[in-house]
Amino acid sequence: MVSVKPSEHLTKLNSKDDFLAFREQARQKWDSVWNGSATVVSVGVGSSSIAKGALEVLEQVHQVGGDVIVREVSGNGAFWMEPWVEVKRPGAQPIVYGPLTVDDVAGVIAGDRNDLAVGVRGDAPEGDIRPLNEHHFFQHQNMLLTRNAGVIEPDSIEDAIARGAYDGYFKVLFEISQEEAIHEVTASNVRGRGGGGFPAGIKWESGRKATNSPKFIVCNSHEGEPNVYKDRHLHECDPHRVLEGILIACIACGAERGYNYLGGEYPLGLRRFRKAVADAERLGLIGKDVLGTGKNVAIRVRTGGGAYICGEASALMYSIMGVRGQPRTKPPRSVEEGLWKRPTVANNTETLANVPDIIVRGGDWYASLGTEKSTGTKLMTMQGPSKLHGVVEVEMGVTMNHILNDIYGGMREGYTFKGMQTGGASAGPITENAFERPIDFDSLTDIHGMLGSGGWVLFDEGVCAVDMARYLTAFSRYESCSKCVPCRLGNPALVEILDRIRFGRGSLEDLALIRRTSKHIIELSLCGLGQVAPVPLVAFLDVYEEEFRQHIVDGHCKTGTCPIAARPHVGADLATAAAD
Amino acid sequence: MVQSNHTHAPRPVPSPYTGRQDIDLDVVREMLSHFTYNDHEEAQELILSACQEINEHFGWVSPEAAEIVAEHLGTTTTRVFAILTFYADFRTEPRGHHHMLLCHGMSCYVMGSNKLVQTMKDTYGVADGETTADDQMSVQVANFCLGVCDRSPVVKIDDEYHGHVTPESLTELVNRAIEGKHSMQENEATHG
Question: Does some domain include residue B13?
Fold first, then answer.
């Protein structure tokens, strides 16, 4: 087992007062770093910035040395300024520089590279350098979950505690009852961030009422979708927030063990989370008789093996139990019979990361954010040819127009907008006519769109609709667990039909065949994956039917993507053959 | 003087899968000795993690290694293999001397990663999960997202990320990776 060692200097806290004293100490330490006489240099290290050389930059910062405190913080979601370095000089506010190379480091620390400054992390300008919050990428965000991103050292539990981590945990341990805690979560109306949108409070309540014991909490951190990295971001920038959410859920539901199930896709997030658990264990925030309350909580970290289907709750639990992750029929639901046949409450990482603030600031405060039915904020990511990229956190109810044009700066030069894929591989594209709709869990459903896990994929006129529909269907084909027939056989059939069209051998009947096969898969599949697998294809067919027809009738792919040139026309015969 | 808050922090970049490795069963046994459990339920929960660790270290899991996992955790080799063949991360055959993760996430797709997949097929005759005939380069088409979307399409060869890759630059990168190894060997030969 990869062992991540806790920090040596931490000692076990045995009581409420111990914790308060430790928190006070951590706060003082934090203040002394930021108000001291040494220059503080922080380097944003996350999986996206590592790819651009952040580790080399970090090493160079160590090399340059001088009387500086070097900190390894996480990325802050703004991919476009990576790798970045933040320099806080005595008596001034911290200034962020980026994107930079190893050669720029010495100049940046010495203070003569203001041309690389992106902004001031603070409210007032510093010379001609404007505050970072005035940059359009940050200006429109409401950073609650990600407020520590790029600020704390994810490997330091003291940094986290100084910035308010475990305050909510403290509250459920000492100040409020289980019922009150669940009441706050219910009042907040926080809904499942994995895409389902099921209210977390209801889940927790049934979890608490379950009489079987032991009970478990499972944090679903497996994001296998090909376009989402919000949970990875949360684990990398603030692992203690995720951990605190799991711990609060354990106490509120009376569960003695919490699990965090991570995909193998983000080793850095996994390592940082393991470090968080090790430190919290050493401090006595996890274990037997937590802070003298007599309550026991254990945390286990489990990793997946890169199967998208393991995002489905029952498949995830099978995966934890060491078998193939194949969903089962429900009922019984997992709150009745989940992991090891015990009552299990499964929540998405982002949902649980919302919980600490809900407990500390109250459910009513949280409910005031966002829209009436979809409260709070949402992490979102943008991919494709937009000007800027990264993870942002916005309130529910903003429009796509606002997200794309105001935050991400619109389309990149030389690209023409064609559509925006929503909901990962589980929903369809939207076009400009939906750009003014407020986005929440329910607002896009009538046009096959979906908020899902908040991943948007922008695509331009150079992308062929048929080919993209094939890509999305092929993804579902690849990720199908092969347990039930409609999904196992239906998705390959759909890919086959699409390939026929791509190769210029399709017929108009194929379009009807696509709809019929899709209906079979959607209605007859066992789990959520199969039930939505053909949705992107059907939606692409609705929106871009003209393009499908061009392939079939004119034998022409206007983007030149499809291998359509040679076109012996077999058409209808093949279509009937495939239907059999 | 450089002060760092925690000097013991390990280097945060994990470097799995690099280079072709045969499986040393003693190393596997050593790895597994850290997998301790209290009951059969916990032992079963560790099967996947154990496979993951072996796979990350060697790039693949051999039948012999699977047998040791099964023995250590009180289960059967069949069950371990059922897992190895279900989850996409696992390989049951050794990788090439170099390993490429070709990101085929949606961002990379939109920016043209299917051309790269095609290039690997046309130029080197390898598809997802395969290794070139000379054992030099194995390819994994990542059905998830590497999370470097501002540079898409992205490939990761061994430990190094490359962004904005085109079919032309891809062949150059592959050749350079393979030749890099050769020239190193040649250097050793001339100076040795």
Answer: no
